[in-house]
């Protein structure tokens, strides 16, 4: 796999206003991103995400550490390195508000020295891909937030850069447009082999489109792993088992002995056992208790965990516990 971005030991502090004290926004951040990957850069408020993104796209100079983009050090050859990056940050700063959708696209396509014919071809292709044809003659400041966001991403595509950095790409978008933007981002990575780095608080979007997440907390990386690995690592082994009868005293004692944390609730007709298993295989021991007196099992419900809950656990420092439990 080809590494397109390598960030090593980044550090950045801000001086507090009217004070000699410093805020250590980024204390030690290192990670790599491969070509064609979609990576989520996550963290709670104030974790250091924006500072990291701004250093990568050259808007801030790190106090120390290195950033290499497509093999080029962005401090030594800044302009050359930055040619490989486009950023869509909050406020859609890469658009001209008083120009129309088509004029914006033509301006950015023309910027790269393409012929008039080629500019028209590219603009038409993007208008179609981003479903903006009907709005082609509309001024940007008249567009909805979702349309502006789509146009900002289309403009970032035009720069032909290898990496697109996006800060909260789906913030404030309605559900339909959010799904449309997600599809576009997936297609940009898969069909055009571009690399995408997304910073977002929307864990649903992250779980949906990112292959990997880098989680920052307090200026440091706390996790760098594939989304599927994190989902597996934090997989919940909590079950609610509904039984067609009550358990006998003997079964209840056994349940208490073998699964002291299990909660047994009896009803006149049914009963339920709620249990959080350390190892999924333990479910067989549990079923042996029911089998002893042929207690009918009516349903087994497994609690699920979503990426948002996993993110909260990681930020609270439960990553190591999860690793120990799963090993
Ligand atoms: N220009 C600045 N001057 C002083 N402190 C700053 C500046 N920019 C950011 N900070 C501080 O640096 C720390 C990291 O901020 P940063 O914006 O990078 O976090 P973030 O992870 O992007 O947060 P959020 O999710 O809230 O956008 C915070 O404590 C923030 O208050």
Task: Give the SSE map.
Elements: E1 3-15, E2 22-34, E3 38-42, H1 49-56, E4 64-69, E5 72-73, H2 78-82, E6 85-88, H3 101-110, H4 116-129, H5 145-158, E7 163-167, H6 175-192, E8 195-199, H7 203-209, E9 212-217, E10 220-226, H8 227-233, E11 238-243, H9 249-258, E12 263-266, E13 271-276, H10 282-292, E14 297-302, H11 307-315, H12 319-326
Parallel strand pairs: 3-8, 3-9, 6-7, 7-8
Antiparallel strand pairs: 1-2, 1-4, 4-5, 9-10, 11-13, 11-14, 12-13
The structure holds adenosine-5'-triphosphate (ATP).
Residues 14, 23, 25, 43, 45-51 line the site of adenosine-5'-triphosphate.
β-sheet strand percentage = 25-35%
CATH superfamily of the largest domain, called what?
P-loop containing nucleotide triphosphate hydrolases
Number of helices: 12
Bound molecules: adenosine-5'-triphosphate
Helix content: 25-40%
Q: How many E-type strands?
A: 14
Terminal Cα separation, in Å?
28 Å
Note down, in words, how this protein is organized.
With 327 residues, this protein is an alpha/beta fold. It has 2 domains: 3-232, Rossmann fold, CATH 3.40.50; 236-302, Alpha-Beta Plaits. Helix content is 37%, strand content 27%. The protein has 12 helices and 14 strands. It has helices spanning 49-56, 78-82, 101-110, 116-129, 145-158, 175-192, 203-209, 227-233, 249-258, 282-292, 307-315, 319-326; strands at residues 3-15, 22-34, 38-42, 64-69, 72-73, 85-88, 163-167, 195-199, 212-217, 220-226, 238-243, 263-266, 271-276, 297-302. The strands form 3 sheets. A 6-stranded mixed beta sheet has the order 6-7-8-3-9-10, sandwiched between helices. The chain has a 4-stranded antiparallel beta sheet with strand order 2-1-4-5. Strand 1 (3-15) and strand 2 form a beta hairpin. Helix 3 (101-110) crosses helix 4 (116-129), helix 3 (101-110) runs parallel beside helix 5 (145-158) and helix 9 runs antiparallel to helix 10 (282-292). The longest helix is centred in the middle third of the chain and has 18 residues, at 175-192. The mean pLDDT is 89.
């Amino acid at each position: 796999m080809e590494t397109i971005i390598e960030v090593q030991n980044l550090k950045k502090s801000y001086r507090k206003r009217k004070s000699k004290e410093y805020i250590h926004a980024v204390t030690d951040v290192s990670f790599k991103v491969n070509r064609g990957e979609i990576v989520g850069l996550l963290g709670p408020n104030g974790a250091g995400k924006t500072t990291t993104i701004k250093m990568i796209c050259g808007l801030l100079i790190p106090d120390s550490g290195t950033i290499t983009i497509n093999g080029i050090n962005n401090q030594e050859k800044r302009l050359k390195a930055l040619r490989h990056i486009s950023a869509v940050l909050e406020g859609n700063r890469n658009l001209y508000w008083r120009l129309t959708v088509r004029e914006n696209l033509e301006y950015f396509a023309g910027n790269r020295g393409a012929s008039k014919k080629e500019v028209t071809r590219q603009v038409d292709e993007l208008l179609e891909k981003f479903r903006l044809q009907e709005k082609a003659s509309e001024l940007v400041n008249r567009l909805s937030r979702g349309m502006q966001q789509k146009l900002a991403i289309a403009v970032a595509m035009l720069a032909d850069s290898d990496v697109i950095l996006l800060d909260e790409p789906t913030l404030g978008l309605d559900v339909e447009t959010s799904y449309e933007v997600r599809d576009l981002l997936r297609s940009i990575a898969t069909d055009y082999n571009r690399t995408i780095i997304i910073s977002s608080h929307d864990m649903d979007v992250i779980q949906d489109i990112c292959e990997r997440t880098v989680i920052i907390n307090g200026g440091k990386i706390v996790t760098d792993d594939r989304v599927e690995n994190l989902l597996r690592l934090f997989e919940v082994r909590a079950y609610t088992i509904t039984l067609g009868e009550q358990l006998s005293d003997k079964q209840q004692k056994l349940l208490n002995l073998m699964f002291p944390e299990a909660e047994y609730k009896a009803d006149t007709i049914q009963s339920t056992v709620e249990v959080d298993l350390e190892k999924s295989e333990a479910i067989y021991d549990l079923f042996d208790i029911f089998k002893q007196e042929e207690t009918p099992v009516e349903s087994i419900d497994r609690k699920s965990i979503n990426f948002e809950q996993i993110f909260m656990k990681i930020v609270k420092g439960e990553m190591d516990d999860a690793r120990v439990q799963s090993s």
